[in-house]
């Protein structure tokens, strides 16, 4: 169950654990019962797998400054042909 942050105008920030279906619902301050507004912050990335975190970082870097390439990354040619039929090799290529 995710934790959502709210800010009470009198007492400051507090957190509420609730189901995602109730994420848009208003909250009341547990100390003074005033209505509180939701506070949006960065997602908690502490528990992420390092591989996933590197992939997210690479995605963010790529979104801001994409790398210019001259060919498709990875293998340039397939090691094994898709078909062993020799007629397929004579088909026109793009
Ligand atoms: Zn309060």
Automatic annotation (TrEMBL):
InterPro entries in the cross-refs: Regulatory_FmdB_Zinc_ribbon (IPR013429)
Domain Putative regulatory protein FmdB zinc ribbon: 1-41
Region spans: Disordered: 58-94
Source taxon at top rank: Bacteria
Protein name: Putative FmdB family regulatory protein
């Amino acid at each position: 169950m995710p934790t959502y942050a709210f800010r009470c105008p009198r007492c400051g920030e507090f957190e509420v654990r609730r189901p995602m279906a109730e994420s848009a619902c208003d909250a009341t301050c547990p100390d003074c019962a005033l209505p509180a507004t939701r506070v949006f912050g960065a997602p908690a990335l502490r528990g992420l797998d390092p591989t996933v975190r590197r992939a997210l970082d690479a995605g963010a870097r790529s979104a801001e400054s994409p790398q210019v390439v001259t060919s498709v990354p990875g293998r340039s040619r397939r090691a094994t042909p898709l078909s062993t039929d020799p007629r397929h090799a004579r088909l026109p290529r793009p």
